[in-house]
Amino acid sequence: MSEAGTNYINHEKGIMSWLTTVDHKRIGLMYLWSAVAALAAGGFFALMIRFQLMSPENDLISKQTYNQAFTLHGVIMVFLFIIPSIPAALGNFVLPIQVGAKDVAFPRMNLASYYIYVVGSIMALAAIALPYFIEGWKPLDAGWTFYAPYSKQTAGPVILMTMAAFVLGFSSIFTGLNFIVTIHKLRVKGMGWYKMPLMLWALYATSILQVLATPVIGITLLLLAMERVLDIGIFDPAKGGDPVLFQHFFWFYSHPAVYIMILPGMGVISELISTFCKKVIFGYNAIANSSIAIAVISFFVWGHHMFLSQQTTFSSMVFSFLTFGVAIPSAIKIFNWVATLYRGSIDLKTPMCYALSFLFLFTIGGLTGLYLGTLSTDIILHDTYFVVAHFHYVMFGGTVIAFFGGLHFWWPKMYGVMYNEFWGRLACGIIFIGFNMTFFSQFFLGSTGMPRRYHSYAGDAHVAETWKSMSGLSTMGAVILGCGIAIMFINLLISLKTGKKAPRNPWGATTLEWETQSPPVHENFEEEPKFTREPYSY
Amino acid sequence: MSSHNTAKIEVDKSQFAERNVSHHFVDADQEFDSCKMGMWLFLLTEILLFGGLFVAYVVFRTWHPETWEAGAEHLDWKMGAVNTGILIASSVTMALAIRQAQLNDKKGTVMLLLATVLLASGFLVVKYFEYTHKFHLGIFPGGDNYMFPGKHLSNEFIYFSIYYMMTGLHVLHVLFGMAGIIWVTLRAAKGEFYSAYYTPVEMVGLYWHLVDLIWIFLFPLLYLTK
Amino acid sequence: MLNNTLAMLPELLPPEASTFAKDTDSTFMFITWVCIFFFVLIVGLMTYFVVKYKRKSEDEVTPNISHNLFLEIIWSVVPIILVLFMFYWGYVAYAKMMDPVAVLGEDGGEHIDLYVNGKQWSWDITYPGGFTINSKDSLKMKNEEEFTWSPKELISEGKENNITSYMTVPVNVPVRLSMTSNDVIHSFAVPAFRIKKDVILNRNAIIWFKATKPGLYIYTCNEMCGIDHGHMIGYLRVVEQDEYDKFMKALDVPLPPEKQWAAGKKLYLNSCSACHSLDGSPRVGPSWKGLYGKKGHKMVDGSTVDVDDDYIRESILNPNAKKAEGFGAAVMPIQKLNEKQLSYLMQFIKSPDKDPNTKPENK
Amino acid sequence: MSAHDHHNPSTHHPHVMPLSMYFGVGFGLIILTVLTVWTAKFMPETIEHYTKMKITPTIAIIIAMFIASIKAALVCLFFMHLKYDKPLNRLTFISGLFFLSLFFIFTLADTLTRDTNPTPAVHSYMPEEFKTITGKPPTPYWVPAWVGYDDHGHKIGSHDGHGHDHGDHTGHDHDHGDHAGHDHGDHEGHDHGPKDKK
C-alpha cells in the first residue's frame, strides 16, 4: 500500500498539507499542541494567582488584574485545555486506530471542529487582550462560572468570552458526535462492545456527555449575552429574573463537563495499568459499565454546586442523595485498578509512574468530594479553597496527570521516537511533589474558611497563621510544579531530535494501535487490520 | 426488512453523476447509516439547545401565569396558525422531495425542494409582519426596550423576552434550514442525488422536520395561552 | 502519640462557636476517618503491590484474573452504606440549619432579629432601633487594634463608639438573620458558626444561629462579587449578655454632631426622596427647598402655618393632619422614626443644601 | 455485501414510502392543528356553555401539549422515518428526550418548591432594602387544575375590582404611572399584577 518509511507525518509535506488535512492523526497533533499552548497560558495565570497569594496583604498585582487572572485561568484551562486535551488530542489520535478504522466517521467535520476550536481560542484571546487596547473596556473578571447578575454588571468583555465558549462548545460537540458514530459504525469486524479497549468506553461515555450537555451551555451563554445586550431579565433579579436559574442552566452543562474532563483520563489509566502490569484488567465489565454509569448519573447531580445558593432545601436533599450515586462507580474503578496490580508484572516506566500518581491523587480528589456532597459539611467548605483543592486534585491530579501519562504512552506511536526514561520519571516525581505541595495545603485553607477568589486575606486570630503558612507552601509547590511540567515537555521535545527510533510495540500492549508501525501510515494500517486478540489478553 | 419497490429502479447514467463511497467507509450502507446517526445526534443537540428555553418558559410561566396570559393577548394566534400550516406543508414537500430523490426523479426533487424554500420564505414573511406589528406597538425584546404604552403587568416583558428568544432562535434555524435546502437543490439540479445516494437531502430533510417539530410546540405554548 | 502528631498539623476546622458546629464537625470527622481509611487502604495496597510485584524479567507470565464477583460486591456495597450515613447526617444537620425554627422556636423563646444587607463591597447589619453597622468599620478597627483587643477595656476607657464598629451578638441567644443583597450575589459566611448562605437582590434568605463561645470571629463574602470581593469581610463579636446590653446602649448614644446631618441625609435618600425634591420641583409632596422657615405656608383648608420645628415634627409623625396646598390628594405614609433619627432628619430639612456644621456662621 | 466493492455505491437501497403516507400524515397534522386551536380558543366557551365547567389554563395547556406531542410523534415517526429506521436512531432520539426531561424535572424540583423559602422578619427597624421584597421570593404558582380564571386573566375568587383591559392597546389613561414605575418597580415581578397597590 505505501512505501516503506512513509508515515502520516511525512506522507505529505508543507504547512498547507497540515492545515487542510483530514487525517485524524494530524488533527490530533494539532489539537495536542494547541492544548499545550493553552496549558502554558493557563499556567502563567495560575502562577500569577499563586504569587499574589504568597503572603496575606500582598499587592504584587492589582485587584483588577488578580480577578482577571483567576477568571482567565479558569476559562483557558477548562475550555481551551482540559476539555480538548484527552478526547480531542489523544482521543483523536488513537480512537480510530483502536477501532481499526482508517479515519473517524466524518473527517471533514473533525477538521472543522479543530478550526472552530481555533476561532473560539482567538475570540478568547481577543477577550483577554482587547481590554488593554480599547478605551473603556475592562479586563474580564466574572470568574469562569459567569454567575449572573455579576456577569451582567461587570465591565469586562463578557459577551466576547461567552461567545468564545459558545463557539468552543460546537468544537466539542463535533468531536463527541464523530466519536460516537465512529465507535458505533466503524469498529473492525469481530470487535464486539465488550471487546473494546477501555479507552474507547471512556471516550464513548465522554462523547455522550459532550453531545448532550454542551448545547445547554450554548443556550445559557446565549441568554447571558442577550441579558447584557437586550436586558431580557431572565437571570437578572433586578428585573424579576432568577439568578439561581442561571446556575441551574450553567451546572446542567458544567457538572457533566467535569466528567467530560475526567472520564477520558480514566480510560487512559485503564490502558496504562493493564499494559505496564502485563496483566488482564481486573473487572473489565465493571470498569466499562461504570464509565457509562458515571456519564448518565452525572446529569442528575448538578445541584450539589448550589446547596447554598437559595436552591430549596428539598432539591438540595435530592441532589445530595444522587451525588453519592456518582461516588460509587468512581470508587469501583479505583478498586479495580488496584486489584489489577495484584500479582502483575509491574514495570515502572514513565507512563506507569503517572498512572500510579493518578491513583494516589485521584483517590484524594475523589474522597474529598464526599465532604462536598454531604450537605452539612458543604456549608463550611462551599466556595472556599477546599473546593479549589478538591477540583484540582480531580482535574489536575486526575485528568492532567492521565493526559501526561497518555502522552508518554502514545508518544512513540505519534512521533516514532522514544524519550529519555530517566528524565521522564524525574519530571513525574517533581510534578507529583509540587502538585501535592500546591494543593494539599489548600485543603487546610478551605476547611478553616478561607474563601476563594480573594485578592488578599487577613484571617481572624484563630487561623491567621494557618492561612499564611499554607498559602506560602502552596506557592512554593506551584513553582516546583511548573518546573516539573517544563522538564517533562523539554524531555519530550528533545526526544524528537535525539530519541531512539520506536518499535511498533514498545510497551508490549495489546490494543490495535500497537500493531501498526510507529508512526502509523497515512490510513493507519498497512493492511486491513484483523481483530485477532482481545484487549488485555496477555 | 425488505420493502415493496426498492432495487428495481434503473439509474439513468446520463442524468445522474455516480458517486463513490468515501475512502474510510466499507460500503454505502455504512456511510449512509453513519451519516444518519450523526445527524440524529446533531438533532439531539438542537433539542437540548431549545430545551433550555423551554425550561425557562415553564419556570416563569409557573411563577407568573397572569403575565403569560396578559402577554399572549398581544400575539395574533391566527398568524401563528397560518405559520403552523405553512411549516407543516413545507415538511410534507420536504419529505416528498426525499422520496422523489429515492425514486430517481430529478425534476420532482428539485421542484419539491424549491416549494419547500418558498413555503419557508412564506413563514418568514408572516413572521416579519408579526415582529413589525409588535415593534410598532412598542413591544421590543428586553426590559429596557419594552415600551408598550397600554396597560400591562410590571413583568410582562419577561414573557416577550422568552417569546423573542424562542421565536428568534427558531427563525435562525429556519434560515439555516433554507440555506441547507438551497444547497441541496443546487446539487440535486446537477444530478448528484439518486436512489443510491441521497444522503444530503435526507440530512437536510431531517433538520427541516426538526424545525417544524419545534414550531409545533412553540405554537400552542406561545399563542394559545389563554 | 497520635494526638501529638495531629497537633502538629495545621488546624483542620475553625473554632466551634455555635450550636451547629457539633453536628457538622462530627460528620466532618466521620468523613475524614472514612477518607483516611480508604486512602491508606488504596495507597497502601498500591505501594505494596508495586514493591512486591515489580517486573523482574521481561517474559514474566501473569495470572489471568479477570474478575471476582465477591470482591466486587463487597467494594460496591460497603461504600454505598457509608455514603448513605454521610448523606443522612449531612441532610439532618443541613435541614436544621436552613430552617431551624423548629429547634430554636420562633415564638417559643427570645431571639434577636438582625438584618444583613450585602452590597458591593461591605455588609450592613441592622440592629433593633434601626442602627446599622458596616463591616468596613470592624475591618478598620481590627487593623488598628491588637488581637488581644478586649471590649471591656474599651468601655472602661470610654471608647464606646469603638464597640459599635463590630457586629455583636450575645452568647446563647438565638439570632435570626434576614439577609438580602443590594446588587449582585454575595454569600454571607461565618466559618466559626458553620453558617453560610448566598444572598440575592429582591430575595430574602434566613439564617438562624446560636453562638456558644465568646470571641472575635471573621465573616466573609464567599461569592465572587466584583473587584473588592476580597475585602468584603468583617469581624463579629460574641459577648456575654451584659456586654451585649452595653453594646446596645452604646448604639443608642447619639452620633457626634458632625455626623448627624449626614445621617439625616441618608434617611432622606432612603425614605423621602421619592416624594420630596430638593430642587424646588414638586413631586408627590412639596419640595424641601427653602421650606424651613417659610412664613404663611398655605394649607389645603385655606389656613396658613409657619414652617418651624413643631410643624415639621408634626408633619413627619402625623403627616396627613395638615396638608399643603396643591398636595391634597397625596397621602404620605406615617414614618416610623425614633427620636434620634427624627432629630437628624430635621437637621437635614433645615438645611438640605449643605451641612451646617461645616460652616457654623450659617446657623 | 462484500468489502471488495468499495467504489460501488449501488449497495444502498432506499426504503421508499407510498405517497399516500405522506399526504395522510400531512392531512392529519393540519387536522390536529385545527383541533389545537379549537381546544384552546373555542372549546372552553363551548364546554362552559353546556356544562358550566371552567377549563383552567392548566387543563388547556395539558390538552394542547398532548395534541402537540401527537403531532411531533407523527412527524418523527413518518416524516423523519423513525418508524422504519434502525433501533439505534430511535434510541438516540429517546435518550435525548430522557436527558431533556432530567433538565426539566430537576430544575422544576427547585423552582416549584420555592415557597418553602421564608419571608424576612418584620420589624419597624427593617431596612429599606427589605421592604421591596414583597412577600415571598418568586412564588411557585402551581395552578391547581380546578382553579378558574376570569376574562382578565385573574384568578377567580380574587375580587379586587382592578380590571385590566388588555385589549386596549392605545390606552394612555391614569394607569400611565404604572408604566413609568416599571423601570424601578422590579420587585413587582414577584407580585401578582392585580394586587399591585398603585
Provide key terms for this protein.
heterotetramer, A: mainly alpha, Cytochrome C Oxidase, Chain A, two-stranded antiparallel ribbon, B: mainly alpha, Four Helix Bundle (Hemerythrin (Met), subunit A), disordered N terminus
Describe the structure.
The complex is a heterotetramer of chains A (538), B (226), C (363) and D (198). Chain A contains 15 helices and two strands. With 538 residues, chain A is mainly α. Chain A has one domain: Cytochrome c oxidase-like, subunit I domain (Cytochrome C Oxidase, Chain A), CATH 1.20.210.10. In chain A, strands 1-2 form a two-stranded antiparallel sheet. Chain C has a five-stranded mixed sheet with strand order 3-2-1-5-8. Chain D is mainly alpha-helical and 198 residues long. Chain D contains five helices and no strands. Chain D is flat, with a radius of gyration of 26 Å. The model of chain D is unreliable at 1-7 and 135-198 (pLDDT under 50). Chain C binds chain D through residues 99, 113, 115, 117, 124, 126-132, 176, 178, 180, 182, 202-206, 270-271, 336, and chain D through 116-121, 123-130, 132-133, 137, 186-187, 189-190.
Please identify the structural class of chain B as seen in this structure: mainly alpha
Largest sheet of chain A: 2 strands, antiparallel
Oligomer state of the chains in this structure = heterotetramer
The CATH architecture term of chain B is Up-down Bundle
| Average pLDDT of chain A | 91
Give the number of DSSP strands of chain A: 2
**Uncertain ranges of chain A:** none
Largest sheet of chain B: none
Mind telling me the CATH class of chain A? Mainly Alpha
Distance between the termini of chain A: 30 Å
Distance between the termini of chain B: 47 Å
Topology, please?
The complex is a heterotetramer of chains A (538), B (226), C (363) and D (198).
Chain A: H1 15-19, H2 24-52, H3 63-99, H4 107-129, H5 150-153, H6 158-185, H7 198-230, H8 243-277, H9 284-297, H10 313-341, H11 350-373, H12 375-381, H13 385-415, E1 417-418, H14 421-447, H15 464-498, E2 500-501
Antiparallel strand pairs in A: 1-2
Helix pairs in contact in A: 2-3, 2-4, 2-15, 3-6, 3-7, 3-8, 3-13, 4-6, 6-7, 7-8, 7-9, 8-9, 8-10, 8-11, 8-13, 9-10, 10-11, 11-13, 11-14, 13-14, 14-15
Chain C: H1 2-8, H2 20-52, H3 69-98, H4 101-104, E1 112-119, E2 122-127, E3 131-134, H5 135-144, H6 151-156, H7 160-163, E4 167-170, E5 174-181, E6 186-190, E7 195-199, E8 205-210, E9 215-221, E10 234-239, H8 241-252, H9 257-272, E11 297-298, E12 304-305, H10 309-317, H11 339-350
Parallel strand pairs in C: 1-5, 4-10
Antiparallel strand pairs in C: 1-2, 2-3, 5-8, 6-7, 6-9, 9-10, 11-12
Chain D: H1 19-51, H2 57-79, H3 87-111, H4 128-131, H5 176-180
